Amino acid sequence: MQAPELLAAPTDPAQTPAPAPDPRESAPAPVTALPSSAPPPSPATSAPDLPSPRPDQRGPFRAEHVRPGDPYELSHGHPVFCLPSGGRASGALLLGGAVVAWDPAVSEAGAGTGYRPAPEVLRAPHVAVGNVPDTPGWVPGAPALAIEYADAGDDEARLARKIDDLLGAGTRWVWVVRLAAPRHVEVHAPGEPPRRAFPGELLHAPGALQNPVQVEALYDRAAAQRAILTSLLQREGHSSLESLRDRGLREGRNEGLQQAVRDVCDVLGIALSTDEDASLLELDGPPLAALLERLKRERRWPLP
User: Fold this and answer.
1) pLDDT tens digits for 155-204?
2) 297 C-beta neighbours (distance < 10 Å), count
3) Do residues 6 and 31 lie in contact, with contact meaning Cβ atoms separated by under 8 Å?
4) Angle between helices 221-235 and 241-268 (to 10 degrees)
5) Strands 139-140 and 115-118, how do they pair?
6) Would you report the helix, strand and coil content of the chain in percent, each value rounded to 5?
7) Nearest alpha carbon to residue 291 among 273, 253, 265, 252
8) Residue spans of the chain under pLDDT 70
9) Residue 47: exposure state from Cβ atoms within 10 A (0-12, 13-18, ≥19)
10) Cα(146)–Cα(161) distance, rounded to whole angstroms?
11) How far apart are the C-alpha atoms of 103 and 235, rounded to whole Å?
12) What is the pLDDT of residue 234?
């Protein structure tokens, strides 16, 4: 296995405009490429990104230096190496993404969408809701809702930088799904302290999602299936599976009563006009049952 290709610091002055000099900033250390013969980094070592720059130190990289498919994001001009997800996180990510993508209020959602809110920032949340256009290239701005999945052993400092970058770019909520026990979701919003939500609690994102999301629906298959089914039914005009069942029972009963009225008229030799037959379709449950009983009793079609 070859070592991951590192971003090379831009050397052509025409490749990117030089930032305005700031006496508070020191010159960023150049990023060098690993030689082609270098062995892959040991799993025990940290990924090849910046070693923790000072908050006021801006790196040399810009979003145009990163190509789709490159394993990097950018934070204030510094490359952040992106490791692939483990089995548990990748499965949960697929479930949670489907839950929010099919919400009736959502028309745009994506996985791993690259956002470029500033030339020196490029962030790709695991799941994004809102501002996911059907166009190639990095997306200006930020999503309304971003969902990140974190498991045991993930780099917390790197995750904190990503949350700060997303919130600073305009994201209204960042949900961090913690898969290590005890499972929970951290809710981050601008200007508010983070809070934890545990299984059984509901997550809200008004303006981005119509339905509240159960914490466990973001990682549990059965809970995700229920949430997705509810959203799909709502998209077709049904408030819930129970309402669809009730509608089916009601329509079936009405059709049975309508046919019973026609059968009684046929036995009694009552010829229904086109208008009289059509009027049966306008009646519901109790009125149909009352009409049927009156036909049996009076043995004629009731006058209007």
Assistant:
1) 999 999 999 999 999 999 999 999 999 999 999 999 999 999 999 999 99
2) 8
3) yes
4) 50
5) parallel
6) 35, 15, 50
7) 265
8) 1-56, 303-304
9) middle
10) 14
11) 8
12) 93
* 293 CA to centre of own chain: 54
Task: List all residues 6 or more positions away from 293 whose beta carbon is below 8 Å from its beta carbon.
Answer: none
Query: Which pLDDT score, from 0 to 100, does residue 7 have?
Result: 57
pLDDT per residue as tens digits for the range 57-82: 788 888 888 888 788 888 888 888 78
The DSSP-derived string for 145-209 is EEEEEE-TT--HHHHHHHHHHHHHHT-SEEEEEE-SSSPEEEEE-TTS--EEE-TT-EE--TTT-
CB-count burial class (<10 Å; 0-12, 13-18, 19+) for 227: buried
Q: How many CA atoms lie within 13 A of 237 on its CB side?
A: 1
Tokens matching residue 62: 């810009």
Q: How far apart are the first and last CA of the chain?
A: 86
Extract the tokens encoding 60: 């040399």
Rounded to an integer, what distance in angstroms lies between the CA atom of residue 246 and that of residue 235?
Answer: 18
**pLDDT for the residue numbered 69:** 79
274 phi and psi, to 5 degrees?
-60, -40
Instruction: Return the number of other C-beta atoms located less than 10 Å from residue 128's C-beta.
Output: 29
User: What is the tally of helices (H) and strands (E) in the chain?
Assistant: 6, 13
Which residues partner with 147 through β-bridges?
Answer: 127, 175
Task: Compute the distance between CA of residue 129 and CA of residue 115 in angstroms, rounded to an integer.
Answer: 12
Which tokens in the block code for residue 297?
């009793």
